[in-house]
Amino acid sequence: MNTHDTLLNAALQVLEEEGEAQFSTRSVCAIAKVTAPTLYHHFGSADGLLSAAITEAFTQFLESKRTATQSSDPVMALREGWDDYVRFAAARPRLYAVMMSRVLDDAEIPAAEQAFALLIQRIAAIAAEGRLRPTVEVAADLMWASANAASLLHVTARLRKVAPPTSEVLEQIREGAIRSILNPEQKGRTQ
Predict the structure, then answer these.
(1) Which residues does 88 contact at the CB level (< 8 Å), separation at least 6?
(2) What's the pTM?
(3) Residue 91 falls in which region: left (phi positive, over 0), alpha (psi -120 to 50) or beta
(4) How far apart are the C-alpha atoms of 10 and 182, rounded to whole Å?
(5) Where are any strands of DSSP class E within 98-184?
(6) At 92, is the secondary structure helix, strand, or coil?
């Protein structure tokens, strides 16, 4: 692995273990076993490294979505994509929180935009079968919101002093969102 990638992996490790508030070039350099001038040579600044690490996290997220096995049934494929999204946040809650904070700060992250485009494609496939109740855009917003809400239950579990959400809670959130976007006369096809 080259120095650039070693630094990126070290930055991701710090973000996953400590979160953005504790992110420091000193921690990254210690993990990567390089000096600060080496870090600055590759990324220019701490923020340059942080931005690159978040971009890499989105790239990893997108790649996991692209390589996941998808059902030929578009509603099932939507469920699978939703589950993949929430699993990522559950496995990497601090990193997920940092990623979302960058989205809220209006950062342009192509992999994030591509991941949302995959959601649109999955919902458009449901619409093409005549199974969608609202517009594709409204359905995408509902599914996006539900996946983020479920993900935040993982991110905030420690704050709320509770265990992460159970699979039953996650399924209820997911299925409530799916029911809200499907034509009622088509519900039998989603079971």
Answers:
(1) 61, 64, 96, 151
(2) 0.88
(3) alpha
(4) 43
(5) none
(6) coil
